[in-house]
Amino acid sequence: MFYKHHVFFCLNQRDGDERPCCAARGAEAMQKHAKSRVKELGLAVPGGVRINKAGCLDRCELGPVVVVYPEAVWYTYVDASDIDEIVESHLRDGQVVERLLLEPQ
Ligand code: FES
Fold this sequence. Notes:
Blueprint: E1 5-10, H1 27-40, E2 49-54, E3 65-69, E4 73-76, H2 80-92
């Protein structure tokens, strides 16, 4: 497997208010934060962790959302400390962060 964890942050920006969007809830800054934290921890290497941008993942009402593959574990987050916990607990240590899980998975 090329990456141990492949992480997709929804960065979708939607105009109008028919549905909420992740971009309006800080997704871009949090994706950048995740990328730099993964790099700082030495995880951004082949066989390690890749942080990517995604379009709408269609779970907008529960967002902002991020999904980790190959496990297909879905999270939401509020701030950088939530992102740090996902990076350190799940991506580095292999422990799912139960309190940030989206339901249903
Ligand atoms: S806008 Fe992020 S899941 Fe739809």
